[in-house]
Specification:
Helix content: 25-40%
Structural class: alpha/beta
Order of helices and strands: EHEEHEEEEHEEEEEHEEEEHHHEEHHHH
Distance between the termini: 31 Å
Number of helices: 11
Radius of gyration: 21 Å
Strand content: 25-35%
Length: 383
């Protein structure tokens, strides 16, 4: 029986554990550094068809319809004049079994976690050392306890300490010169937008997204604001929880976002946006990175959760078939999505009136062009 250690109980770690438990020749344990899995109630995730198809392999389609939502379009708006630019039909990628889905992150995490036996997750297990000897991997934890395994799957997020341990150097993500403000809002507080779609509003050095996260009338709101921060500010993570800092970000966003929306936001959180600067490949052939530990994307395609699921599924198939193509194919796909995400970020944040006019005119044409839709989005939203 092969022992597989999974570091991190996030979306990718929980999902691959669900897949691996279907094979009785694996002994699987998740080692989570915190005393519980982070549920983050209220906040949403978007899951495109590529990930829904894979989640359905473990019964995701059975989740109650009231706990999820299937938007058909993305409506693009101008923050400056509050007018609709165009809309993009994302339902063209749907099929009978798999549809673009929005839901609470809490719902997805609970679904993945509750399918696993209680003894699959060991809490308060902070990794301090990883050693290799031939095909044996030894993991040492903060309390000096250690375990041995045949395979190591690292999925402990963008600030992964385990990745630095196997690389034998500190690996830090890159600040994307952006601040994200995330909150929830009730449907009754939204005016002038179609509540059955995803609303993407474009402004000057700012874009915001509003979308339903269930069929109960709850919506997720997120704004991404371009903002330079000093190294001292970035190193003081408590800064982003301070009322004065959050108020300053709200003040900047409210210059463009409808004040009625700002006043009705609940559960507000601010955090700096970090992305991966490069892809790191483990030297050991039995060690793998997935999720944000492998690569964290700019937040313009809503592909963070989807790619975490997709990468975990690819790794599972490689382990099942005893092949070694995981890193090569995943790197190609990651680079493609990263390029497009950065281009979107540039296009979403234009300030020059002439460039904005040109962007909006091009968008109106492209969203109706099937060849473009299948090429630009289809390669991401479909496996």
């Amino acid at each position: 029986m092969k022992k597989i250690a999974i570091i991190g109980g996030g979306i990718s770690g929980l999902y691959i554990a669900n897949l691996l438990r279907q094979n009785s020749s694996y002994q699987i344990t998740i080692y989570e550094k915190n005393n519980s899995v982070n549920l983050e109630k209220g906040y949403g995730v978007q899951l495109s068809v590529n990930s829904i198809k894979l989640l359905n392999e473990i019964g995701f389609q059975k989740i109650n319809l009231v706990d999820k939502f299937h938007p058909n379009k993305v409506d693009f708006y101008s923050l400056k004049n509050k007018k609709k630019i165009c809309d993009l039909n994302i339902s063209v990628f749907n099929n009978t079994e798999s549809k673009y889905t929005t839901l609470q992150r809490f719902t997805l995490i609970n679904f993945l976690k509750n399918r696993l036996p209680d003894n699959f997750i060991n809490y308060n297990k902070k990794v301090t050392k990883i050693d290799y000897e031939n095909d044996n991997i030894e993991i040492t934890f903060k309390n000096s306890a250690s375990i041995n395994c045949d395979y190591l799957v690292i999925s402990d997020g963008i600030f992964s300490k385990s990745k630095s341990l196997i690389a034998k150097k500190e690996i830090k993500p890159k600040y994307f010169k952006s601040i994200a403000l995330r909150a929830t809002i009730d449907r009754g507080c939204l005016q002038g937008i179609d509540p059955s779609n995803i609303s993407l509003s474009l402004g000057s050095n700012l874009h915001s997204v509003t979308y339903p996260i269930d069929n109960r009338g709850q919506f997720n709101f997120i704004s991404i604001l371009r903002k330079n921060l000093s190294n001292s500010q970035l190193s003081d993570y408590s800064l982003f929880e301070k009322g004065d800092f959050i108020s300053s970000i709200i003040s900047e966003i409210s210059k463009q976002v409808d004040p009625d929306i700002i006043q009705n936001l609940k559960n507000i959180r601010c955090f700096p946006v970090f992305v991966s600067s490069k892809i790191h490949q483990p030297i050991n052939k039995n060690t793998f990175l997935i999720g944000d530990a492998f690569f964290a994307f700019p937040p313009t395609f809503a592909q963070g959760a989807s790619q975490s699921i997709e990468a975990a599924h690819e790794l599972y198939k490689n382990l099942e078939n005893l092949t070694h193509g995981f890193c090569h194919e995943r790197i190609k796909r990651t680079k493609m999505i990263d390029r497009k995400s950065k281009f979107n970020y540039f296009a979403f944040h234009l300030s020059n009136p002439l460039l904005i006019w040109a962007r909006n005119s091009i968008m109106k044409y492209l969203v109706k062009n099937n060849n473009f839709i299948n090429s630009y989005l289809g390669k991401i939203y479909k496996n």
